[in-house]
Amino acid sequence: MSVGTSETAEQDRSAKCRRGYVLIYRSIIESAVFLDAGVFRLFVLLLLKACHKPREVTIRTGRGTKKVLLDVGQCIIGTQSLAEKLRHPKSTIRRWLAKLKANQQISIESDPHYSIVTICNWATYQTRKKNRGAATNEESGSPTGPATGAATGPKQRISNKELGNKEREAARGRPSKGT
Known about the structure:
The protein is an alpha+beta fold. The chain is built from 7 helices and 5 strands, in the order αααβββααββαα.
């Protein structure tokens, strides 16, 4: 199942992929994904390939081209291209994908020419919030929220840079010294 695209479209997509980030929190070390280095590498690759906004992708199949609409948290994969990128046999890639699916971290819609992988709970883990101290806006690019397969995320710490002394004391439930 390899995915074919025109050279310029692939270059455009590659240039766009180098920008941005995904959120990965320390709590991932407690998940089943972290226990197998290969599965972890595959999962991180899928996170990086997943769309952060809906988009239409044109792919080449054996019968011409086809337009596929990808939603947030989805990516198109081919086991052959994943095997080449991760330098493992296709059978290993299929086994790793099956592990991620069994752990309910991804779901897969298969087609004879490609597969669409959906990262489960993408919106919960990757959505940016607009709250001060816990989140970010589109322009700043600061990460928020838990990332991968963890059920809950870590508590946000309040730093001196984010809040002044009075606000920090109030957030801790203590009266500030100046009031």
